[in-house]
What we know:
two-stranded antiparallel sheet, F-box domain-containing protein, 17% strand, alpha/beta, F-box_dom, LRR_dom_sf, F-box-like_dom_sf
Amino acid sequence: xPQLPADCLNEIxxxxxxxxxxxxxxILVNRLWCEISVRILWKNVWKYSASSFSFSTLVACLxxxxxxxxxxxxxxxSTPTFEFPTFDYASFCKVLPIxxxxxxxxxxxxxxxxxxxxxxxxxxxxxxxxxIKLFLRQITSLKQLKISxxxxxxxxxxxxxxxxxxxxxxxxxxxxxxxxxTSDISSEFFYQLSQLSHNITILNIMIENHxxxxxxxxISAQRCLKCSKxxxxxxxxxxxxxxxxxxxxxxxxxxxxxGGDNISLSFITSLINLEELQLEFGYSEWFKNFExxxxxxxxxxxxxxxxxxxxxxxxxxxxxxxxxKNLREIYLCEYSGYCDNSLNLAIANFCPILKKISTGIKNYxxxxxxxxxxxxxxxxxxxxxCGGLFLNDMRALQxxxxxxxxxxxxxxxxxxxxxxxxxxxxxxxxxxxxxxRKPFSxxxxxxxxxxxxxxxxxxxxxIIEKYIKLGMIKRFKVY
Length: 479
C-alpha cells in the first residue's frame, strides 16, 4: 500500500488532536507517523493529564546547566532511558498555559514525592521556571499564552511571570496572537509584554480589584486586535473607562461581562467595525447607559448576544431598528429566561436576513412565532424555549415544521417543568405531515433534566431513529 504524503497525514491526524490514545497508537506505526503524531500531541500537551512521561521527558530536554541547577537544589527527577530525546518536544508547543504548568507539575511532584514538603513551593517554582525557559528557547513563535491562577497549598496561587524578562522571550513572544490572563499580575509584566508583542489578535482578561498600569500600555501597543473578552469586577469606574477606551477600532468581536454600575458602555460607540457583540450582565440596572448605543450604527454587526439580563425594551428595539438589517444571529436573555413580545416583533420587523435565533415565545403568543418566520425568511436555526409560560415542545415543533421550510436545525431548550409530555403518536404525526420538507437536525437541550422532555421517552427516540434512516432528520443530539 503506498504511503500517504506527510501533508495528507497531518490533515487527518489534526482531527485526532483531542484523542490522546489514538495519537499514541499512531506513534507506533512508523517513523513518519510518529513524527506527525508527536507534533500534534505536543502542540498543547498541557490539556492532557499530568503524566510522568511528559515531565520526565521535558526534564530530559533541559540543557545541562538547568539540570545542574535543579540537582543543586536537591531536585532529581528520573528521566526516560534514552540519553538524548528523540525530538525537541518543546519546539512543537504552540500553547503555553503558565498556571497549568505550575498546577500539573506540582501534582506530578507531589505524587512522585520528589521534593521534601518544606521545600515544595520553592522546588515547584524552580522546575517550572526552567521548563518555561526551555519552551521560550525552543519555540520559534508562540501562538497562545495563558496566565491563570492555580490551586496549590489549599489556596489560589498566582504564577511567577518573571519569564517575560528572559532574553529568550524576545523572539518567542514576538508573534504572540492570543493572550488569556487575569489582572492579578504585576504591571511590569504587562509593560514588558507591550514591548515584545504587538500582534495580539485575541485578548481575554479577567479584571478584579485593580487594573495594572501596564495593561493599558499593552492594549495601546496592539496593531490588529480583533477579539476581546473582558470580565470586570469591583473596579472603580474612572479606571475602567480609562482601560476600555484603549480598545482599538480594529476590534471585530467584543464579549463584556461581569457588570455593576462601574461599567460605562460609551467606549463601544467607537468600535464601528464590530461584527459580534456580547453583553452579559447580572441585572438590568447595569444596562442603564445602553441608551448611548441605541443611536449608534454598527455597519458590520452580524451577531448580537444579550446573555443574561436585558436592557430596557425600548432602547433595545431602537438598537435593532438601526442595526438589525445586517444581523445574522441574535440571542436574547438566554440565561435569565426573560423575554418580551415587543422584542420578538421587533426582530421580525427589523432583522430580515437573520439565520439563527434564540428567544422565548409564550403559550399565548403563537402568532408571534409565525410573524417571525414571515419576517425572517432566511432562518436556518431556531432555539425555542420550552416549559412553564413558554411553548410546549409539541406546539413548537408543529409551528416550526408548518411555517418554516428553510429551517435546518431545531433546538428545543427545556427551561421549566413541562406539564404535558409529547406522546409518540403525536411525534409520529408531526413528522408524517412534513415528509416533503428539507432534512433538518433536531437538538434537545435538557440541562435541568426535565422529566417530561421529549428525550425521556424511549418510544420517541425510536421514532426519531426511524426518520433518521428515512433521511428526514440529519442529526439528533441531546445535551
